[in-house]
Amino acid sequence: MNEPVAELGYEAARDQLAEVVKMLEQGGLDLDHSLALWERGEELAKRCEEHLAGARARVEKALSHAEDEGDPR
Q1: Most CB atoms within 10 A, among 17, 19, 40, 73?
Q2: Which family does it belong to (predicted)?
Q3: What is the DSSP secondary structure assignment for residue 67, as one 8-state letter?
Q4: Which of 11, 15, 29, 33 minimizes the C-alpha distance to 1?
Q5: Confidence (pLDDT) at 68
Q6: Taking a C-beta distance cutoff of 8 angstroms, is the pair 37, 44 a contact?
Q7: At residue 73, does pLDDT exceed 60?
Q8: How far apart are the C-alpha atoms of 35 and 24, rounded to whole Å?
Q9: How many C-beta neighbours within 10 Å does residue 53 have?
Q10: Nearest to 20 by CA among 45, 41, 49, 46
């Protein structure tokens, strides 16, 4: 879980985010570790949203292109 968040693909970021949430929910961590995990979780969530926004844009572009060509999809 030490790799830079910016280098993670969607699945890796999502899986790490789930692990961070699990660790925070279990509790028993000191404040500094909890805060560090929370910050990492925020970064991971943002990265997931970036990937989803990119995928959404690609789908919209493909649909628009298909409509421009008269493809009834």
Answers
A1: 17
A2: Belongs to the XseB family.
A3: H
A4: 15
A5: 79
A6: no
A7: no
A8: 9
A9: 10
A10: 41
- How far is residue 19 from each of residues 1, 23, 27, 55, measured CA to CA in Å? 10, 6, 13, 24
Per-residue model confidence as pLDDT tens digits over 28-53: 999 999 999 999 999 999 999 999 99
The DSSP annotation for 26-56 comes to: H----HHHHHHHHHHHHHHHHHHHHHHHHHH
Q: What tokens appear for 15 in the block?
A: 């899986």
Q: Which two tokens stand for residue 55?
A: 């995928």
Q: What would the two tokens of residue 65 be?
A: 């292109």
